[in-house]
From TrEMBL:
InterPro entries cross-referenced by the UniProt entry: FlgN-like, FlgN-like_sf
Organism this protein belongs to: Trinickia soli
Protein name stated in the entry: Flagellar biosynthesis protein FlgN
SUPFAM superfamilies, alphabetized: FlgN-like
Function: Required for the efficient initiation of filament assembly.
Key words, A-Z: Bacterial flagellum biogenesis, Cell projection, Cilium, Coiled coil, Flagellum
GO BP of this protein: bacterial-type flagellum assembly
Family: Belongs to the FlgN family.
Coiled-coil stretches: 39-66
Amino acid sequence: MRDALFATVTEEHATLEAFASLLAYEEKALAAVSPLETLPGIIEKKNELTEKLASLEKTRDDQLRQMGLPAGWKGMELAIADDARLAKQWKLLQAVVERARRANATNGLMIRVRMNYNQSALAILRGTTARHAATVYGPDGRMAAV
């Protein structure tokens, strides 16, 4: 069972590496003047990888339960306590998790800045200031109160 758990954590690591790389690509797209050509493909791939990561996490939790351990972080901490090979792979996975978390936060900030810029531009086009804009288009394409 430990070999299966090791294989799952290794696959999680590889998948998360791909996700982190995709986030770096997304950051470059968001910095571009016109990111609309590349963002749909990036979003589609991110969704695929997110689904795969969720599936792998469920598999890992199931494997931990089969070993008589709790699911999640606590179970992994117990599983790696006496398995140096698994501990090393888990540590690698956690490093990529942190890198992806930071990249995702950066991209979220870039998206918010771009949205604020677009809202200000809309307010100017409407002849109002951003502070006094009555409505803007929401993500669903409908007018929403600010």
